[in-house]
Amino acid sequence: MNFQFEEAIEILERTPKTLSNLLIGLSNSWIVCNEGEATWNAFNVVGHLIEGEKNNWIPRIEMIILKGKTETFPPFDRFSQIHQNAEKTIEQLLSEFTKIRRKNLENLRNLINSHTNLEQTGVHPEFGIVKLREQISTWVAHDLNHISQITRVLAKRYQEDVGPWKAYLRILNQ
């Protein structure tokens, strides 16, 4: 087992800045490019991350700590952001994400201490019994997954333009 709470925090606190450094100031064509029909662009991903901050990570962690296996987590709508952010800019989304993540990490630190049993369990609507450390580990891996997704989508915008070098660019062959 590799999970260490403080190491998890290291990634979670860096994600907003990583995405802001990557996306703020880019031309809109970068922000809205995607991998084809029914795929997400950077704007959609950041909106999804915000929804996770509001309705997934901390609410489920609180349920594990306070209710254990007595209640099932409410389902999380992984696509709710698609239509609700249309009037916002990527800068607005990233600002919102940064603020809510900062607040959520403060809440997380208040919920978890050296005496917290990270093996406490809750009930996921699809997976059944899940552990607190698994929920936090998934939060970290989820961030990294979506950072990777955004960079892949951006790279694929130039997929046809790189010519023969495509053979050496794994990101374009995924």
From TrEMBL:
Residues 12-150 form the DinB-like domain. It comes from the Bacteria. Transmembrane segments: none annotated. This is DinB-like domain-containing protein. It comes from Neobacillus ginsengisoli.
